[in-house]
Fold each of these.
Amino acid sequence: MKNIIAILFFISLSSFLLGQNPGKKVGYMGSGFFPTKKGNAKYILFETTEGKTYKLSGYGVEGNDLAIERTYKSKKAANRYWRNYTDEKIYYPGGKLKTHRSRKGIYPKMTESKRTYYEDGTAKSILIKKNSKTVEDQAFFPDGSIRRENKWQNGKLLSFRAFFPNGKPHVSGEFSPMKDFKAKTPLIQYYPNGSPFIKSDMADMGKRKSVTQTYFGRDGNEVKVDSSLNGFPDSIASDLINQEFEMSISNAMPREDGEPYPLNIEEVRQDIGYPLVAREDGVQGSVVMRIMVDKSGVARYFYPINFVDRRLAVPVMLYILDLEFMPAVHNGEPIPFWVNIPFNFKMLK
């Protein structure tokens, strides 16, 4: 049980609150925090009972709002591994549903679904896997238009597309219907006006552990070609972000100077999971992504600076734009900034 408490957002034990919350809550477990752009939302965690199932429920300190619920088949299942839950619900302050995950079956015959929502209740994303293979994978803007769409067929990736709020393409790439994520076309990241910004030729990334990249100015002229991944023209992208994305930062929490801080890194890591083909082939190692985060904390552009195999790298790239950040701050003002985010994959023995 201590392992569960430690992982669930650094929960610290404090028994003095026992008995302050009546009802189905049968045992005080500790307290923890959810990082948000408006600050850290504190919650108190309780064991609860409901029929034959075992549930962990977190309640917000202010207003006693329910913050998180995890349901397990039994207390033994929860003790064995904290992610063995069959159902998970995370709520916004105030009680509106933010994330709902459910699981049935045992790998590889497992069915999983994840749905996320904006605070007004509109759909934010949907991810469905059947027999551990992705069948539906989309993310939406608040107005309901497509923000990201990954198309799959029998567990094989066919295409990766993302869009700007104006409907123009943000990222596009097609893949051969093979299980090892072999690219069929270059992966292209675009300027908001629709012209190419970065073209990544990933056809041989599995062999060379690198990606040949071509960069373009807003005038369409080629700027630089670099296959070492060590010479990305940061100044070009920084200039782009400064001029193109003057977005509202009213919800950003004031803080001291520092690099961008990911708010939902664990959620994105869960969405990536352990790629099925990598698991089947025994591939493990790390992927490090370099990400341009704009003034509002939105991930805009990315490229891998280190990876061991495309069977790990491509699945990470599919969800990297789902990361949400506290923006970088300099002299008290949010600024665009590059940040490196690692993703580690290690098979359990």
Amino acid sequence: MENKDNSSLLSKDDISRLLADRSTKAQVDVAAKLTKQFATDGPKGLNPQQQVIAQDIFRLLMTRGEMIVRAMLAMNLSQTDKLPPDIARQMAHDANIEVAGPVLQYSDVLNEEDLTEIISSMVDSTKLQAIARRDEVSETISDMLVSTNLEQVVATLVQNEGARISEQTFADIIQHHKNNPDVVESIFQRSTVPVAVIDKVVASLSQTMRKDLEKKYGDLAAMKAMRKALDQSLEMASMKMMGFASSDKELMRLIRQLEKNGKLSPFSALAMCNLQLFEVSLSRILRVPLKNVHILLKDASGFKIAYDRAQLPPHLFEATMLAVRALREAEEEGVVGADADHIEHIIGRMRLLAQGKGTMELEQLAVLMQHYLR
């Protein structure tokens, strides 16, 4: 059906007006209409010949337009793959963050080579932070951003879960920014950090910073030990929870992905019948203080909110609640441990709490717990 409202469509009169009237108002009007049409697919968008004309107009506006016009172009075009690379690079190098920021943060048109060149030639912390916020940041780009030694850039990068950071780059971060609370706390809040990195962070902390962090996250030495146990058991937990009967190649690919995302970390804790580790792993995934997670899990609705926000498997929710309840009751009664008898005790308590209505998911957790000691 033809769109009867043509007020947003760019006409020949608009183009003539742009050429004749170089006022900011005329440029803003044309930029708004043209970027909308340019980014639109299908019959309501531009045909190939019109696309070429539009690109030339963008180049003209990027060269002659006021900052507000260039900023509008960048914002409206930053998330379309139709944006020509030369225009994307021109926007990225614009002196104003309002223009450069959207493209540096969102545009997939900028490739690894572009980003490398931009970082090498740029000292503007705000623009480098925009790169650090990209949905995906490679290890190479992360290393370059850390090499700038700009604290806000490094803190922004570490806070970005989509940034891949090598262990060596983490070591550089700790060496140069161990006294920066924002950077150190961001490392603790990441859902996936190598155990060796946690070791180095804890060892490098000043007494004052250590006390401040322990107010939020509890005993750091205990957290470090639990993180190590978590990493050691994650592979086993991942395999058993998924009940895989696929090729070794497919299985290892899945495990690498799970280790990267850390999404099954709470189930590794359940495999060890370790309630504290379960809470710590949720705290790291949700990036909220441990004491808040502890409070949430004591309330049924709070438990559901935390579970859903951690993006854990929906079908395992009821079984997980039973396991946590069994662990908490045992803990309150002073029944603790990690040997075979304790695990069997927890499994029996879980089945009792299920009131005879055993489910396949509950038995999955039981098998996972039994497998942990093998």
